[in-house]
Every structure is written in structure tokens, then in C-alpha cells.
Specification:
The protein is mainly beta. It contains one helix and five strands. The protein has a domain of about 60 residues: OB fold (Dihydrolipoamide Acetyltransferase, E2P) (Beta Barrel), CATH 2.40.50.140. The longest helix has 5 residues.
Length: about 90
């Protein structure tokens, strides 16, 4: 039952010269801010440059590489246009 009939198909080789970059998210708003409070579960309160305070979580890459953030760190926060009260911390600026 598990036997093939006919010749095997050759697999196509992937040409490595055609690198496709990941598409950049279009509908994001990026703002800079300062961490005011570090909360559990990789969340932080961030005070933005326009004096609003938002709740933000660390991005997946920052969690994966264990980049720590402390109160007073300057960060870049990404928002969706649908909810401007929650964001994602995508970068820490020394």
C-alpha cells in the first residue's frame, strides 16, 4: 500500500541569491519615551515625549535576547492606530 508507482519527482533547489526581506509593518506609529516603572510579565510604564504615559511590553526579539530595561532607560515604542494606550517596546537607546 505504501509503495510508489513511477519515478520519483526531483525536488527543486532553492536559489539562495533571491533574498526576500520581511515586509515592514505599515500601520504602526513609533514614538520615543522613557521607562518610568517596570512591571511583571515583561511590561513597563513608559512616559512618551508628548507627556502621555502608556503600558508597553517588550518585543519578542528583546525577550529572546534577554535585553533588560530599567527605569530611566530611553526606548522606542510601537503602537497600532487602533489602541494608542498599549504599545510594544522595540528598541532600547543606551
Amino acid at each position: 500500500m505504501g509503495q510508489r508507482s513511477g519515478p520519483r519527482k526531483k525536488k527543486k533547489k532553492n536559489s539562495g541569491d533571491a533574498q526576500v526581506a520581511a515586509p515592514k509593518r505599515r500601520d504602526v506609529i513609533e514614538m520615543d519615551g522613557t521607562i518610568t516603572q517596570v512591571l511583571p510579565n515583561s511590561s513597563c510604564k513608559v512616559k512618551l515625549v508628548n507627556d502621555h504615559e502608556v503600558l508597553a511590553t517588550l518585543s519578542g526579539k528583546m525577550k529572546m535576547y534577554r535585553i533588560s530595561v530599567l527605569p530611566g532607560d530611553r526606548v522606542t515604542v510601537e503602537f497600532t492606530p487602533y489602541d494608542l494606550t498599549k504599545g510594544r517596546i522595540t528598541r532600547r537607546h543606551g
